[in-house]
Amino acid sequence: MRHRQHFGFKAEPFAKDIATKDLLKLASMIGVKERLDYCLNLGGILAIFGEVGSGKTTALRWSLAQYHASDIKIVSIVATTGSITEFYKQLSWGLDLAPKSISRTTLLCECRAVIKELATGRKQRVLVCIDEAQLLRRDVLAELHTVMNFEHDGANYLAMVLCGQPALLENLQYRAAAPLASRVMSKAHVRSLTQVEMEEYLSHHLRVAGVKRRVSYQRRAPESALSGIPTPSSRAPYDRWAVRIRSR
Hints:
With 248 residues, the protein is an alpha/beta fold. It folds into 2 domains: 27-189, P-loop containing nucleotide triphosphate hydrolases (Rossmann fold), CATH 3.40.50; 192-246, no CATH class. The protein has helices at residues 2-7, 27-42, 56-64, 84-94, 104-120, 138-143, 167-171, 178-181, 195-208, 236-239; strands spanning 45-49, 72-78, 125-131, 158-164, 184-189, 214-219, 241-246. The strands form 2 sheets. It has a 5-stranded parallel β-sheet, sandwiched between helices. The protein has a two-stranded antiparallel sheet with strand order 6-7. Strand 3, helix 6 (138-143) and strand 4 form a beta-alpha-beta unit. The chain is elongated, with a radius of gyration of 21 Å.
């Protein structure tokens, strides 16, 4: 494409499919990883929250990439406004099961059996990551904790991540969600980037794209308008900043 030739890009600097190893490691991402380690060791829940476009999912994706598949079985689920049965179906598919029943009791038992086998037989911990968790219905939040209850709540076979917008924390305050909220052992708030962090972010991804010339920036919006870690699909680098690439 012409813009890549003009600016000297070898790849798109803000592509959606950018490799995890090429992401800029920010303090917020390291914080998510440290909290995730803690919850994995104790079999608890990590709640990651932040505004739209703050980079919650990016921070989670980078953190998950630090684990080896032989140690951690990661089950990724995108929340919907569906019933608990729909959630159990997603969990079953993530555990490589083919659901044979629509009974939520049967689905739960099958999932729990596989999780226990992975933890005790293969010594592989299970981590269920639920993105867009603010969409989970109250009745789903009221029952979700039962997935984690093994050996009368005395075994740590499963850890969980709830990742979503700030409304997630509000939903966890409902009385029906109390059993689930009691299992939240750590929280990570992914906040907005500072001006310095934004400049570092832009410079890093331009270098990854192959730009070797000097880069200067002119901010088009007040710093308060920056909305966290720009996700690969975000237009923030283009709309909020004027990026000039100059020859040395």
